[in-house]
Design goal:
- With 187 residues, the chain is mainly α.
- The protein is built from five helices and no strands.
- The protein has helices spanning 11-34, 43-75, 79-110, 117-149, 152-161.
- The radius of gyration is 17 Å and the shape is elongated.
- The chain binds fe (ii) ion.
- Fe (ii) ion binds at residues 20, 61, 65, 138.
């Protein structure tokens, strides 16, 4: 793929960017459903979206990124750049923990368990905010590091060791085509 600046964009980096658009689309849907939690909560929808994020973002996308960033660290980075990579690892762990907790609570609500809605709303809002900040952080600070720090042979190695390179998950109902541009989100 040719990027807007005319440069060759490695397939794997293109894949990571596409993942981000899909994840941002799901977060937007989650935000939409969160608005109705007080009045007409759609627990099935919220649960489905969180399950998708638990699988696709936390178990497929983040591990894929961690492997790519690990390769980058081993190529040699400045202390500041290394700090960014390790900060990102921490964010992945934090997001994974939050997704698990929220998905478990939403699944209980689907089963009819009475949920502390204001508490869930607060946790969900913090989660949505962190997810969007995380996507922007990676796109603005880490993907450029990959673009500059890895050459074609690195990308070829990574594409070979990451098997299969494509691990797309089924998109939640209504989600396809709702891919979002994280750069347009508010902070
Ligand atoms: Fe990411």
């Amino acid at each position: 793929m040719i990027a807007a600046n005319g440069a060759y964009l490695p397939l794997l980096l293109e894949r990571l960017s596409r993942d981000h658009a899909r994840i941002a689309g799901v977060i937007k849907q989650l935000e939409f459903l969160a608005d109705d939690l007080d009045t007409t909560p759609d627990w099935d929808g919220i649960s489905e979206l969180l399950d998708f994020l638990e699988y696709y973002a936390d178990k497929v996308h983040h591990p894929l990124e961690d492997r790519v960033f690990d390769h980058l660290v081993n190529k040699g980075l400045t202390p500041t750049e290394r700090h960014l990579v390790f900060k990102n690892l921490g964010q992945h762990e934090e997001i994974t923990g939050m997704t698990e907790t929220l998905a478990r609570t939403a699944a209980q609500a689907v089963e009819g368990v009475v949920i502390d809605v204001p508490e869930f709303q607060e946790a969900l809002a913090a989660y949505i905010s962190l997810q969007m900040r995380h996507l922007r952080f990676e796109e603005n600070q880490l993907f450029p590091l990959l673009d500059h720090g890895l050459d074609n042979s690195d990308w070829n190695v990574l594409t070979r060791v990451i098997d299969p390179p494509e691990q797309d998950a089924p998109f939640p109902a209504g989600g396809e085509g709702d891919e979002a541009d994280t750069q347009k989100e508010e902070s």
